[in-house]
Known about the structure:
The complex is a heterodimer. By secondary structure, chain A is mainly alpha-helical. Chain A has helices at 3-15, 21-33, 38-50, 56-76, 87-101, 110-123, 129-135, 142-149, 168-193, 203-206, 222-240, 257-265, 273-293; one strand spanning 196-197. In chain A, helix 4 packs parallel to helix 6. By secondary structure, chain B is of the alpha+beta class. Among the domains of chain B are: 179-259, Phosphorylase Kinase, domain 1 (2-Layer Sandwich); 263-483, Orthogonal Bundle (Transferase(Phosphotransferase), domain 1). Chain B has helices spanning 24-44, 53-61, 76-83, 108-120, 141-153, 167-170, 224-234, 265-269, 278-297, 352-355, 364-379, 389-400, 430-434, 440-449, 460-464, 467-470, 490-519, 524-527; strands spanning 182-191, 194-201, 207-213, 244-250, 253-259, 263-264, 300-301, 310-312, 318-320, 327-328, 425-426, 545-547, 554-556. In chain B, strand 4 and strand 5 form a beta hairpin. In chain B, helix 11 runs antiparallel to helix 14. Chain B is globular. Chain B starts with 23 loop residues before the first helix and ends in a 34-residue tail after the last strand. Chains A and B meet through helix 2, helix 4, helix 6, helix 9 and strand 1 of A and helix 1, helix 12 and strand 11 of B. Strand 1 (196-197) of chain A pairs parallel with strand 11 of chain B, so a sheet runs across the interface.
Amino acid sequence: MDPFEAANQFAQILKGITPVLQSLVRAAHFALKNAESEDYLFPTIMNIFKDETVELNTKSTLFQFVEVLFNESYFFSQQPKYNYPYVQNMKEALPQILLSVLPSSNISNIHSAYTSLKHITKLFKIDCSNYIDKFDSFLLDADDIENLKKDVPFPEIDLDDEPETVDPLITTWNLLIKKKKQSQYERVRLLTKSEILDDDVPEDILFNIKEKTDKDVDKLTKKNIISRMEDDREAHKRSKETLWLVTRPPKSSYITEDEFLNHYWNKYHALDVEEDNAFLDSLDELNQVVAESYKDKQF
Amino acid sequence: MSDRYRPPPAGPRSSRDFQRKPSFKSRERNRDRDRDRDRDNRERDVYKPGGSQRDRERDMYRPRNDTYTPKKGPDNHKDVHKDTPNDTHKDEPSLGSKRGPPSGPSSYRKRRELAKEKEKKIEPFRGIPSGRGPPLGPRGGKKAGATNQQQQQQPKPPKQKPQKLSKSQIYSIYVPGGSRVYQRTQQVGEGTYGKVYKAKNTKTNEFVALKKLRLESEREGFPITAMREIKLLQSFDHPNIVGLLEMMVEQNQIYMIFDYMDHDLTGFLSHPDLVLEEGHCKYIFQQLMEGLNYLHKKRVIHRDIKGSNILLDSTGCLKIADFGLARTMKIVNDGESPDYTNRVITIWYRPPELLLGATDYGREVDIWGVGCLLIELYTKVAAFQGFDEVGQLCRIFNVMGTPSIVDWPDIQNLPWFEMLKPKVNVASKFKAKYESAMSPDGFDLALNLLRLNPKARFTAEQALQHRYFTEEPFPLPLTFLKDVEGEWHEFETKKRRRKERKRLQDEAKAKQNKDKQSQGTVDVDASLPVKSVSEVPLDIPQSSTVNTVDVGTVESNIDSDIEIDAVATDDKISEEAKHPKGQESDGYEP
């Protein structure tokens, strides 16, 4: 397929993408199969993120797609034919992508972006535990409290303020933490500075819901919110469907359950001391391999 | 590498390199090894299932006499097995074929007795005696066992001439429906799981509830969620938890059989003449908390607490039912999340943390539900009646107030908090709305059960120690219940309400037509006294009763305004909708 045609098709696929896992994987596979056209396909992804008419829900889904693409690219690259396509480009663009998924007027997608970023960071084998701890904690410091007293709004978060020398993945984490801090700051500001209403408040006043007349694409309608919830639930359910899979060490030599069982099944005589020791050693080894192969921690 | 997106590997599960195809050599080695193993199996395997594939598949679903093994009287099986036609050709199976369900008694002793019996006399199949159709299992308990034994002691009918049926004829055996042990009388409930019927045990004349599992939509065999429910029910033994009497397979349908309970809490509270005194409310709520405390002590979360799942019998005994969404809690280490499904609990009784996407919740989700029910006992209307997640959370915040950072610091870490973050501060109206409707102790208990922050909510144990139960007036048994006419379930209440609504709509239509005729070309919409059909939410009452804050004073007001003002602002909770739409949470998790 010529690059131009591939880019066209890819744009169509991305516009029709749904948060269903199969849809994300299908799009990622298309990108990887046309990896030689990366120079055309990668800008297609970025164009959609930059497009201001694209709904925020779609952008959030696209961020999940980016996560899947990272993941699939690593997996494809186990074959010598592939050399981590898209990985470098996407990593460089991650801070920009994050800011388009979390525009300043609405950071509804912060939690799903956080989950995706955690998975992406794991792929790069970078330790992000301090960022995870930060994300879950109260981030406001003395300066912020001082600003709150003065009722100063939180400063705009801009990519240009970030140092360029830092790894883009770390920059992305820093931006995410800043966004979270902004949210906490504004919430405290609301709680301390705004009046408390005694009357009943309708949904659209209580929450940040887009009205029919509202032109702001960064806001979510009530329908958007409910479908987002349903999609998240579905994704959560699907993520558990492969929990039973086990990962065994790909190269090293170890005994399998079959070999172990067949070997001892075919023995009729009593085991002498040496054989008995061998038996216990093999059993220990087998147990260890099995214990390590579960994805979710066993107790 | 995170491989949560990886499809299952195609290769053999336990081979060393499951992602790589085995080489020719290793295939050959495996084949030899398998052959050896097969030979061993031939020598050693004892169990040999029999019959053709078709026979066995049919047997899986065929109503059998031996689906239930009562604890006493192994002799039952002698009788039962004699009548089972397929056992005669079940002895010589082909190796490696799919194994049918075990058909014999489970214990070794019983199997040996059965084998002896068979040795003595192998009778040819004579068809199912017309007097006894499936199911034949006793209902459990002493009485039922006795019935079965009595049956066996009855003199056998004179021997008929053996009539041997060919295999093809076996399929056309007619099983008379009239001879069933349980005779259905009426439907009393319905949900995503299936239907619930009231039925009478013709042997003991006792009523039972048959919960028919819906299997038509199951493509993957017996639903694992039903397995979970059965397993949980079997592990319970408490007066305030519904008891599973037995399972029954009849005509390709699977039933769970429970003691029959005359009312459910939603139906019961909809009784127009119901007057509940403080002691009565305490008696009902104490039983509910005892049941819930038992579940929570056993590390079980119910996850579908609502009025229609709380059953009452005519003596006032309360039982918690429907464990279709229940699960035991995971044991997790520090810092780990249990990660349960978020799609649980009927929306009116769903706590705020679930509405904000929590997946690491605990027993507190049930506590919110019973808190709602405590209010409902006094006001007879559900406290928070939303139509969807957004509306539900809005109603909760409007009554309880938006949470401050001190109230609920962890709210900011919930997945959907940014999506549904309040952008204004709302004051709590809980006190103004409910304090006068409830007793002071009741109000204080409700306040502690309905804390927005799940960590601040009372546990079931704490609730039981609350002065609500220890101070006067003490819990008072519901002796008046035996005099209540009829049975009050949400199912029938809804039916009645639908009927009433239809009547109102018909009346409105008739009036409309009349107006049209008399006024000529008047704009019909403007003169409509009632909302159009499509505008009226399905299960919301438009009529019947209006409750005032005076407990138990219920007055009939059929012509009241049908519009629902779910967020009433004044003290009087009047003209509110009364019952949740039957929104069923059907999220299950592996």
